[in-house]
Write a structure and sequence with these properties.
The protein is 52% helix and 14% strand. The chain is built from 4 helices and 2 strands, in the order H-H-H-E-E-H. The chain is elongated, with a radius of gyration of 17 Å.
Length: 101
Amino acid sequence: MRFVTIVAFALAVCPAVAAYGQSGVSPSDMSPSQIKAHNAGLDPADPNYIKCRKSEVMGSLVKKQRVCRTIGQWKETSALGNEGSREMVEGFARSGGSNGN
């Protein structure tokens, strides 16, 4: 639960999100042509370059959801996920490897 809270908070205060918040449009709400126009002069390694990925929708075998974020947001999300996983493994190790049974 703590991990979900950390990720939600980080996405809320991420500088890249704040930049899009000023215009009122998040990268996921932008059309493909708007994203292409935004990325036109940017290097793909630029933190403001927008990259979209498709993820599966829970409860559906077919439906996919398009999630668009800046490279900086993708890196931050990945780092937070790694941190949460690391905390979980370390907590398991501290408990002596017992699962409570």
